[in-house]
């Protein structure tokens, strides 16, 4: 019985390692600095509640907003306007999109 449990445990470990290697290929390291400008990604539920339009024409990103503080390795605090005061101002890095100004074109 213990031998079968060990075989099952080894198979599960191999499967977990394989899934992790596939996920690591898709993951990209995104890092922002304090003072950078970023767009904030909206979830579909927030689009309907706060921004009026829904469907294809609803905004996917709002902003740009300035990063005021890095909270952890993957969390950033944004300087949000007063009309968004009800939204918590700390966001995970996947909710942010880098703002590129057109000054260089």
Brief rundown of the structure:
This protein has helices spanning 2-26, 44-50, and strands spanning 37-41, 61-70, 75-79, 90-92, 96-98.
What does this structure look like?
This protein is of the alpha+beta class. The chain has a domain at 37-104. It is 30% helix and 25% strand. It contains two helices and five strands, in the order αβαββββ. A five-stranded antiparallel sheet has the order 4-3-2-1-5, with no helix packed on it. A hairpin with a 4-residue loop joins β2 and β3. The protein starts with a helix and ends in a 7-residue tail after the last strand. The mean pLDDT is 84.
Which features characterize this protein?
five-stranded antiparallel beta sheet, alpha+beta, elongated, 25% strand, 2 helices, 105 residues
Structural topology:
Blueprint: H1 2-26, E1 37-41, H2 44-50, E2 61-70, E3 75-79, E4 90-92, E5 96-98
Domain Tf2-1-like SH3-like: 35-100
Organism: Gossypium arboreum (Tree cotton)
Protein name: Tf2-1-like SH3-like domain-containing protein
Radius of gyration equals 20 Å
The proportion of residues forming helix, as a percent range, comes to 25-40%
User: Runs with pLDDT <50, length 5+?
Assistant: none
Instruction: Report mean pLDDT, rounded to a whole number.
Output: 84
Shape descriptor reads: elongated
* Class by SSE composition: alpha+beta
| End-to-end gap | 68 Å
Count of beta strands: 5
List the strand order in the largest sheet: 4-3-2-1-5
């Amino acid at each position: 019985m213990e031998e079968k449990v060990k075989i099952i445990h080894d198979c599960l470990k191999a499967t977990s390692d394989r899934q992790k290697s596939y996920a690591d290929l898709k993951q990209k390291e995104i890092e922002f600095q304090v003072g950078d400008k970023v767009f904030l990604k909206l979830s579909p539920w927030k689009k309907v509640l706060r921004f009026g339009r829904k469907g294809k024409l609803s905004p996917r990103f709002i902003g740009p907003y300035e990063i005021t503080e890095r909270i952890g390795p993957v969390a950033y605090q944004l300087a949000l306007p007063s009309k968004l005061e009800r939204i918590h101002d700390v966001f995970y890095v996947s909710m942010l999109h880098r703002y590129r100004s057109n000054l260089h074109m």
